[in-house]
Amino acid sequence: MKLFLDSALTDEIRYALDLWDIDGITTNPRHVQASGKPFIQVIQEIGDMVAGTDKSVSTQTNPHYHEDYQAIVEEGRKLSKLSPNFVIKIPSTEHGFKACKILKEEGIRSNLTLCFSASQGLQAMRMGAYYVSPFIAWKEANGDNTDQFIQDMIDIRDNYAFETQILVAAIRNGRQIATAAALGADIVTTSFDVYKDAFAHPFTDLGLNRFQDYWDKTPYE
Ligand code: E4P
């Protein structure tokens, strides 16, 4: 399973590319706003960081266009010209699905975001989504069973041999990363801090302290 970083902070992205060999980047308006930079500037900087690799950068279209597929398509065309690594992030709405289909026919890849049901996922796959992003934590906070949601998305994709990759998003902890992997999701995306916690464990630190004590009390040769 691939791991994507959900961020628009270049320091975080540089660290994650270097130390974690992260497989791709996703951004959203919250992350872009947190960068303090204009949208186009920040996504171009991120695109430059992965230039020459196969690592994708999901860049969001204007969320106000959710009921205007022509506006989504126009913006998708514009963004896709900025970097071959860009995948156009489009909301899982009727107009978003239509825009996805048009962009797919032009060879432009889409990430159908804000997906909260397997039926939305099915339509994203039918319309040619490159990625579809089921949002996990938001549904768990609402009391929904997200394991079944992820499994349904994978089953639908496999039943009909759609080419769409299942990109599990809105992840809050290592358990959710591991569950997505155990179920067979293609990718997860989450924030820098979630990966930092997920890649560590207090018992690893405890064990290191113990072993360092013994190590220091033992001659090396
Ligand atoms: C994914 O592509 C999104 O950018 C992200 O996961 C959104 O969810 P969150 O901001 O609640 O984590």
Secondary-structure element string: EHEHHEHEHEHEHHEHEHH
Bound molecules: erythose-4-phosphate
Helix-strand makeup class: alpha/beta
First-to-last CA distance: 43 Å
Report the β-strand fraction as a percent range: 15-25%
Q: Runs with pLDDT <50, length 5+?
A: none
Any idea what the shape is? globular
Please supply descriptive tags for the structure shown above:
single chain; 221 residues; alpha/beta; TIM Barrel; eight-stranded parallel β-barrel; 11 helices; 8 strands; 17% strand; globular; binds erythose-4-phosphate
Question: Can you give a write-up of this model?
Answer:
The chain has eleven helices and eight strands. The chain has a single domain (2-192), classed as Alpha-Beta Barrel (TIM Barrel). The protein has helices at residues 10-19, 29-35, 39-49, 69-80, 94-105, 118-126, 137-141, 146-159, 174-183, 192-198, 202-216; strands spanning 2-6, 24-26, 56-60, 86-91, 110-115, 131-134, 165-168, 187-190. It has 221 residues and is an alpha/beta fold. Strands 1-2-3-4-5-6-7-8 form an eight-stranded parallel β-barrel, surrounded by eight helices. Helix content is 51%, strand content 17%. It binds erythose-4-phosphate. Residues 6, 26, 28, 30, 113, 133, 135, 137, 169-170, 189 line the site of erythose-4-phosphate (E4P).
